[in-house]
Amino acid sequence: MIVVDGEFSGLDPNTHAILSLGGIDMNDPDREFYGECQLPDWATTHPIAMQVNGFTDEQIHDPAKQSLGELIKAFIEWAEVAKDRTLAGQNIWNDWLMLNAGMKRNDIKWDLGHRIVDLHSVVYTHMMARGVEIPTENNMSSLNSEFICAYSGIPKEADPHIALTGAKWEAEAFSRLFHGKNLLPEFASDTIPEYLIRK
């Protein structure tokens, strides 16, 4: 399973693009991926997305940075080594859509697969199995990243968001939810909640 996290210029794959990608190979967590790219000429930016990712206009138009196509090809080369490259993450459907759109625009053929593992769904299922009420807003789940961090016993991801940092906290949360164990040294001192520890 590959935990992937992207930072984007916005959330619409038709008008926005990937700015950076981070990845962790859950079968070999020492294998990390991180890369940034220029904003393609066709893409626009959304102010909220740019506030979240912290990239400046100068950074996203840096001519020294690789292109979106080059970034995706580098990610594919890294991912191909993984024993299981099923994509996983928080709101992973959005990362899947942005990757798929970027591949199509750059005529890159790679099997992303259609089965993904969403961190929200894993936490939702874990809470249901424990008989814990799911917090809601507008009659829908409100299990956001901050809640998932607290539920997993790890600190909230710092701002601005960085793709590799996001992939790391998501991978750590998956490890604690699946196995009741710490995965990455950055989180070794963060206490695993008792309800996640396997007896």
Question: Describe it for me?
Answer:
- The protein is an alpha/beta fold and 199 residues long.
- It folds into two domains: 2-105, Ribonuclease H-like superfamily/Ribonuclease H (Nucleotidyltransferase, domain 5), CATH 3.30.420; 117-196, no CATH class.
- It is 37% helix and 15% strand.
- It has helices at 47-53, 57-60, 68-79, 92-105, 119-130, 145-152, 163-179; strands spanning 2-8, 18-25, 32-36, 87-89, 117-118, 136-137, 140-141.
Write the layout of secondary structure elements.
Elements: E1 2-8, E2 18-25, E3 32-36, H1 47-53, H2 57-60, H3 68-79, E4 87-89, H4 92-105, E5 117-118, H5 119-130, E6 136-137, E7 140-141, H6 145-152, H7 163-179
Summarize the structure in short.
The protein has 7 helices and 7 strands. The protein is α/β, with parallel strands linked by helices. The chain folds into 2 domains: 104 residues, Ribonuclease H-like superfamily/Ribonuclease H (Nucleotidyltransferase, domain 5, 2-Layer Sandwich), CATH 3.30.420; 80 residues, no CATH class.
